[in-house]
TrEMBL record:
Listed Pfam families: NAGPA
Signal peptide interval: none
Domain Phosphodiester glycosidase: 145-314
Record's protein name: Phosphodiester glycosidase domain-containing protein
Domain of life, per lineage: Bacteria
Database matches in InterPro entries: EpsL_firmicutes, NAGPA
PANTHER family assigned to the protein according to its UniProt record, in alphabetical order: N-ACETYLGLUCOSAMINE-1-PHOSPHODIESTER ALPHA-N-ACETYLGLUCOSAMINIDASE (PTHR40446:SF2)
Length: 318
């Protein structure tokens, strides 16, 4: 004789089965890399295989001539030789000076950067692929792109929202935080999410755009209030603009007792102002904060750092 199953037990088993299926789908969506196609509207199409600079993405890009800033900084570039030390790099296209600063229990690294052309400041995706949860180490991305120096970017791939413009290509247009734009003419401008218009800024010559923030410096003055819940001392990464062709990278080590506590957003803003930045912007920080110089990590990332989706780097080529 077959035993009858109790109705309550059958319902419970059905609920458990559904929970397992839903949980599996959620884990897959969160952990399995997905690549997206960039299209002219900046939205994400159905997941597919696409590499940065694809034909689909290029349709959204802007073809803009670039300036040669050699005459603006005649003492910053060589006539063709490459001069390198442990903390400097100087060539006909690039000049980078790295300084480690230790004060008040904080250790941070500053790279003062001059480039001859905007094409010497680029961005790269992990695995050369635009997509969610596609990650790599900052150093590995830097080496793969022959970077003179690099810092982590905004970790765009950790979420499905946000603005992504990289090397002149509009991949995504969904501003959800302060946006920083670097234009082909070398200038930088920051926008609140509510005031950012991707189509307009692409028409204005947007070359790169990051969506993390907050903005730290505007018109040469450090801000004192920030649209961020993480304003306490932490590891930080930021990018600054002094003038066309002259930029600043900074990485602050933190959460490491006896070595470096990190910076508050207020301290970071004041530091970027003191470095002469007219505009400065906070990028992804915490365990992500990493700076490279040559083929080595320059700073001491918290817990050894972590994988991320993108970098900002300086290249001696084009």
């Amino acid at each position: 004789m077959r035993k009858k199953r109790h109705p309550a037990m059958m319902i419970l088993l059905d609920i458990l089965a559904v929970a397992v299926i839903v949980g599996g789908i959620a884990a897959y969506r969160l952990l399995i890399p997905e690549t997206y196609v960039a299209n002219a509207s900046g939205t994400e199409a159905a997941p597919a295989s696409v590499t940065s600079g694809s034909a689909a993405g290029a349709a959204a890009g802007t073809t803009t001539g670039t300036s040669d800033w050699g005459a603006s900084f005649p003492d910053k570039f060589t006539d063709g030789d490459v001069i390198e030390t442990d903390s400097t790099y100087m060539s006909e296209n690039v000049n980078v000076t790295m300084t480690m600063v230790q004060e008040d229990g904080i250790t941070y690294y500053v790279q003062d950067i001059y480039v001859r052309s905007i094409e010497n400041l680029k961005t790269a995706f992990a695995e050369d692929t635009y997509g969610k949860a596609v990650t790599d180490w900052v150093l590995d991305m830097a080496i793969e792109n022959d970077a003179v120096t690099a810092i982590n970017g905004d970790y765009y791939g950790v979420e499905s929202g946000g603005v992504v413009i990289r090397n002149g290509v509009l991949y995504r247009d969904d501003a959800n935080a302060d946006v920083l734009v670097l234009y082909y003419d070398g200038t930088m401008k920051a926008f609140p999410a509510s005031e950012f218009d991707a189509d307009l800024e692409m028409a204005n010559g947007a070359y790169q755009a990051w969506n993390f923030g907050p903005v730290l410096v505007e018109d040469g003055t450090a801000l004192t209030s920030f649209s961020s819940r993480i304003s306490s001392a932490n590891p930080r990464t930021a990018i600054g603009y002094v003038e066309p062709g002259h930029y600043v990278f900074i990485t602050v080590d933190g959460r490491q007792a006896g070595y470096s506590s990190g910076m508050t957003l207020k301290q970071l803003a004041e530091t970027m102002e003191a470095l002469g930045c007219q505009v400065a912007y906070n990028l992804d920080g915490g365990q992500t904060s990493t700076m490279t110089f040559g083929d080595e990590i320059a700073n001491q990332p918290y817990k050894g750092g972590r994988l991320t989706s993108d970098i900002i780097f300086i290249t001696d080529g084009e």
